[in-house]
Amino acid sequence: MKRRPAFRVLSALAAVTVVVAAAPAASATRPGFDLDSATIPSLQARMASGRLTAVQLTAAYLDRIRRVDPQVNAVLAVNPAALAEAAQSDVRHRTGRTRGPLDGIPILVKDNVDTRSMQTTAGSRALRSRPAQDATLMGRLHDAGAVLLGKANLSEWANFRAAKPTSGWSGVGGQTNNPYVLDHNPCGSSADSAAGVAASLAQVAIGTETDGSIVCPAGMTGTVGHKPSLGLVSRTGVVPISAEQDTAGPIGRNVVDVALTLSVLQGRDPADPATAKYPSDQPTDYAGLLRPGSLRGSRIGLWRLPVLGPDTDAVMTRSKEALARAGVQVVEVTLPYQDRLGELEFPALLTEFHRDLDKYLATRPKGPRDLGELIAYNRADPLEQTCFAGQELFEQAYAAPGPDDPAYLKNRAELTGLAQRSIDETLAKYRLDAIATPTNPPAWKTDCATGDNDVIPSSTPAAVAGYPSVTVPAGFSGPLPIGVLFMAGRWADARVLSYAADYERQAPARRPPGYLPHLG
């Protein structure tokens, strides 16, 4: 059973006037505004006018976690200093020294992002300790005045341990549920960050992705998730899978919150070589570029992916119609080289995981020093052998060729090159501004015995290429959300976010979760 750290909600909670939309029937409501539909700009306007304080907002989210999270199980640990951080933000608001739009905004951070004040476990019982320092992106969030509510659960080791993992499960946190249908899965290793945002347990959350782990959970939980261009956001202090593909990015209930958070996260970091390629003309305010009507006059390729099922394809048909109404020329396309990408990606990740995880573990003051020690730990811990019964990927990575192996180097070069070509050549051939594709099928039922049903090819081209992608709610299959994914060339983050925001305006599809216990 999961044990949650004790925390106190101060008397300020009594003054909170926040209504929580679509809460479970047992939850009480209070007069005021709706947390679920609130945006960061609207919250900042309330704080600027004195109608809301950061302490009140943080206390409301802590109360929400206390009442709602027992059903969802997205929050691994609550930050005991959250209210103190909010009080410091209130001082800045009163004295005119706010640090920007994230000042006083409560956030959740996936528990593979180093936080010096809290344990960072990657979901593994072997790693229950505090890192030596904050991840670079955590420093940027702190500098922006964001309030750390706590750490989100995750698929253990970002789903890179067992051959048939169950997304949202970890040895530390147990199983996270999809808030739309609780016995269904939230998908991907950032499952819990997305589920927490969908359930209004935080205003935004930070997830990470190697291939699909931001966009798939966002799609399946009716939220917005942005996988940035590789090198836009530092990975220093993030538990790795692959330096060639890993990135961190924001998840929110609307595009403007995601864009505001990305503006804080982005930037060069001398400790992360990928950020050295960050262009000097890259925007610093992505939210300021979310202009209404940005879709009008654009050409967008629609990659349907009927393999994701008829309900998903029907949502894509409605998305195509919505894009056409917004003034888009829609061209149906098929991206090349996908079978070869599928052959090359997994072997490359095995080599990179062993290399990069050993480097990361060397930075931790306590715990296993390398992959070999992790394998030994899991063999000896009965709890680690429950839902993630195996550690086949650990063992395969341990035996994989080293990073200097000529065959590995050749295959990685081909892999990255083909992924980039699959997008670049499609954009050029059809004179496209972006490509749209279904993010996800309807969520599957969670089952530890069978693992995930997650053959979802839409995230792979952008993830392997290092190009940006963003998912926005597009429709439903019954009560289960389906998203549409926009992708384009490297450093086109502002463009895909602007298209997603305009789509959100033109065809609003999100509705709050219903916390159904099961389908039917």
What this model shows, in words?
With 520 residues, the protein is of the alpha/beta class. It has a single domain, classed as Amidase signature (AS) enzymes (Alpha-Beta Complex), CATH 3.90.1300.10. Helix content is 34%, strand content 13%. It contains 14 helices and 15 strands. The protein has helices spanning 40-49, 54-72, 82-94, 136-143, 191-198, 215-220, 255-265, 310-325, 338-361, 371-380, 392-399, 406-429, 460-465, 493-506, and strands at residues 18-19, 33-34, 75-78, 106-110, 147-152, 169-170, 174-175, 204-209, 224-227, 247-252, 299-302, 329-332, 434-438, 469-477, 480-487. The strands form three sheets. Strands 3-5-4-8-10-9-14-15-13-11-12 form an eleven-stranded mixed β-sheet. Strands 1-2 form a two-stranded parallel ribbon. It has a two-stranded antiparallel sheet with strand order 6-7. Helix 4 (136-143) links the parallel strand 4 and strand 5. Helix 2 (54-72) packs antiparallel against helix 3, helix 9 (338-361) crosses helix 11 (392-399) and helix 9 crosses helix 12. The longest helix is centred in the last third of the chain and has 24 residues, at 338-361.
